[in-house]
Amino acid sequence: MIEVATVGREGMTGAPLNLGVTDSNLALVSQVPGEALRMRSEDFLCQRARNPELMRLLNRYSGLMLALVAQSAACNRAHHVDARCARWLLMTHDQAGTDRFPVTQEFLAQMLGVSRPSVAISAAALQNAGLVTYHRGDMTILDRSALEELACECYAVIAQRFRQFFE
Predict the structure, then answer these.
(1) Cβ-count burial of 150 within 10 angstroms (0-12 exposed, 13-18 middle, 19+ buried)?
(2) How far apart are CA 150 and CA 143, in angstroms?
(3) What residue ranges in 6-121 does DSSP mark as E strands?
(4) Interatomic CA distance for residues 131 and 85, integer angstroms
(5) What's the DSSP call for residue 80?
(6) H or E element: which one contains 81?
(7) Spatial distance between the Cα atoms of 114 and 92, rounded to a whole number of angstroms
(8) Beta partners for 134?
(9) In terms of Cα–Cα distance, which of 66, 50, 52 is closest to 11?
(10) Of 127, 143, 125, 146, whose CA–CA distance to 135 is shortest?
């Protein structure tokens, strides 16, 4: 398993269904605790068909998700694990809406497609630099601006796309 997109309080899953794909190979994993609403596929498609404005918004959001997936794929191939780790933490921070969230090294390794020891080294470097505190699966962002400087340019590209979407 490797992460290709994250969805937080700003969005929804189901982009494949919105695009007419009824059988998806995607696995959805809840990364942080919180509440979510769920809708049957049939009800979703019915509401989408009844409301042209909703359909327009869902189509724009599906386009945003495709851009995020493409950026994540390029990032996973092109950038060092430290920069990708910073990007992932920033995205999770954005979507969780809190400085503190649970994440294990094993889970982060799966999301980044690297070994757990690689994540341990990255997390220790971030903590030693004073950017985060991390203990037993509990991550706290301490210096967001420094974390943004460490992240690859993919975070800025993705963040800009989200800002444009919500404007």
Answers:
(1) buried
(2) 11
(3) 100-102
(4) 12
(5) -
(6) helix 81-96
(7) 18
(8) 139
(9) 66
(10) 127
Length of the chain: 167
Give the helix/strand (H/E) hosting 65.
helix 52-78
**Cα 67 from Cα 42, distance rounded (Å):** 26
**Measured distance CA(20)–CA(143) in Å, rounded:** 42
| CATH architecture, range 80-154 | Orthogonal Bundle (1.10)
Exposed / middle / buried, residue 133 (Cβ in 10 Å: 0-12, 13-18, 19+): middle
Q: Is the distance from CB of 132 to CB of 140 less than 8 angstroms?
A: yes
pLDDT tens string 54-89: 999 999 999 999 999 999 999 999 999 999 999 999
Q: What distance in Å separates the CA atoms of residue 137 and residue 24, rounded to the nearest whole number? A: 30
Residue entry with tokens 């985060």: 132
What is the spatial distance between Cα 59 and Cα 57, in angstroms, rounded to a whole number?
5
Residues 80-133: tens digit of each pLDDT: 999 999 999 999 999 888 999 999 999 999 989 999 999 999 999 999 999 999
